[in-house]
Amino acid sequence: MSDLYPVPEDFAAQANVTSADYARDYAESIRDPDAFWGRIAQRLDWMKPPTRVRDVSFDRQNFQIRWFADGELNVSVNCLDRHLAERGDKTALIFEPDGPDSEAKHISYRELHARVCRLGNALRSLGIGKGDRVTIYLPMIVEAAVAMLACARIGAIHTVVFGGFSANSIADRVRDSGAKLIITADEGLRGSKKVPLKANVDAALKLPGTTTVETVLVVRHTGGAVDMQMPRDRWYDAVVDSQPDTCEPERMNAEDPLFILYTSGSTGKPKGVLHTTGGYLLFAAYTHWAVFDIKDDDIYWCTADVGWVTGHSYIVYGPLANGATSLMFEGVPSYPDASRFWQVVDKHQVSIFYTAPTAIRALMREGEEPVRKTSRKSLRLLGSVGEPINPEAWRWYYDVVGEGRCPIVDTWWQTENGGILISPLPGAWATKPGSATKPFFGVQPAIVDAAGNILEGECEGNLVIMDSWPGQMRTVYGDDQRFFDTYFAAYPGMYFTGDGARRDADGYYWITGRVDDVINVSGHRIGTAEVESALVLHPKVAEAAVVGFPHDIKGQGIYAYVTLVAGEVESDELLKELVAHVRKEIGPIASPDVLQWAPGLPKTRSGKIMRRILRKIAENAPDQLGDTSTLADPSVVDALLDNRRGA
Ligand code: WTA
């Protein structure tokens, strides 16, 4: 490949990890992971340093994943207390509000520590302790980070629910986790639009199976009117502000749970991905330091939402464990206009910027002018996450946003991984547009064929990881069997990612996207099965099948085929009603982009829906339908193609 972007010399000269470091340390991390990770673990402050490093087996017989199993520590102490002596007055979080005319806030490590302690005390006073589950349903405001860290301080397990999810989705997560308390706000604000967070919580708590929730703490954010149901609902400030600003941290075992985060899979309801304390924090912190080349004077901005894993690892835990300054942005890239990101970069002198390809593509469509009219001189490194970045968007990011000066780290990882697994280390090797390049320390990717044979050299197939890394998820909350079956049953002894990948002649990895029934819409994972179950809940729907299709901005869009119950009539009103119904059931991110009526679905004689055919129809590639002769009724395909043309 000739399309190689070498490391700029001045960048390499100051990099946290050079190519020589990588060659030496990566080899050691694979040869002797105990020695390697034992040494790296000294980056954390342990109340009791671990004497064991890894107890891992991916085999069905003695399956276990444990790291630093006899170590003890507290995550909030690592993110806050240990910085107070040297960096107490350093800004830990910059809050940039939705609207540019509202005031930004700078929260020092000392202030953040005090706020976390006050909430920790308040939670304890409300009967929350070690092991209890707390749901966090907040906008991108400082309280979101405070809430996560306060849970960590007292050993409660947080489960953050993205503010774009509906009441039903909140209820599903509360039910599965058995949460005792919810922290929410009156309303969220995104691109000047209000999001009725408290009202969504109220609606969720009317649904069955949510009676575990005893208390709802409500942050006053917009000041909008909300119903307070006493004694369940309490204003956050009334309960928290009067608390002492020190709070004894809970001693946690390295393998005690830190959080549950729900994510979509190919079947059933979203699973509760469980991450634990020691390994997760170490991996988030170490990857953040190495991949983002973080220095003490950097202003670092990850545009994700704390409702996703990227927000957990790379807005809150990784940056704060490293004593960095992390910017939290409440708004959206397009409000008030397409310059917003770059204006925020200039305003706060952001040096490291991390976003998703979907945002880049959306901004690219607006042309160069909104970018060019800003300075961006402070930027030195750019990052991408969440979905494959197409080379065209990569080059625009590099040339227009970074003016050819900033390396790009295209970071591949998953909720299940806790942190980045494949990515450039920006000072260590040249990048190629569209490639996540090479594995992080301790990570052993491999590519297998459908039968599980490991492929060598240049190849394409399914991406697996051969051995554990500290940030790996430990289980699906409450369902060890589902954990094993989802990730370790397909290819014995290996972790199966659900992604396809190609390896080129230079050993660079190119992620090709999901190979299962998960679609990636604007970097958000959505299970086709979830959207289908939402659709069939509607009384007029008999059957539904959902596939992904290529979408210019979102990467993938959602394409739904719907069969109505006999006697119901297809109409534009019903179509709108069904889209609204999915929004209500799951949330706006799951709204179908295209909904097509399907008098019948292509099924095998045993009744299995042939999604391959539905994908080709959605892609508008009728010439690539392949063999349809095994269908129970091949004529349904013609009917679907006719309907598509009519659509
Ligand atoms: C996809 C987000 C290509 C992939 C951190 C993965 C990517 C899923 C990249 C996980 C990337 C994430 N290049 N694909 N740099 N990053 N993905 O759990 O399909 O929300 O399996 O975690 O996003 O999404 P999740």
UniProtKB/TrEMBL annotation:
InterPro entries: Ac_CoA_lig (IPR011904), ACAS_N (IPR032387), AMP-bd_C (IPR025110), AMP-bd_C_sf (IPR045851), AMP-binding_CS (IPR020845), AMP-dep_synth/lig_dom (IPR000873), ANL_N_sf (IPR042099). Acetylated. Deacetylation by the SIR2-homolog deacetylase activates the enzyme. Its cofactor is Mg(2+). Keywords: Acetylation, ATP-binding, Ligase, Magnesium, Metal-binding, Nucleotide-binding. Residues 81-465 form the AMP-dependent synthetase/ligase domain. It is an enzyme of class 6 (ligase). Gene3D superfamilies: 3.30.300.30, N-terminal domain of ligase-like. Residues 530-608 form the AMP-binding enzyme C-terminal domain. GO terms for molecular function: acetate-CoA ligase activity. The modification N6-acetyllysine is found at residue 608. Catalyzes the conversion of acetate into acetyl-CoA (AcCoA), an essential intermediate at the junction of anabolic and catabolic pathways. AcsA undergoes a two-step reaction. In the first half reaction, AcsA combines acetate with ATP to form acetyl-adenylate (AcAMP) intermediate. In the second half reaction, it can then transfer the acetyl group from AcAMP to the sulfhydryl group of CoA, forming the product AcCoA. Belongs to the ATP-dependent AMP-binding enzyme family. This is Acetyl-coenzyme A synthetase. The lineage of its organism: Bacteria, Pseudomonadati, Pseudomonadota, Gammaproteobacteria, Lysobacterales.
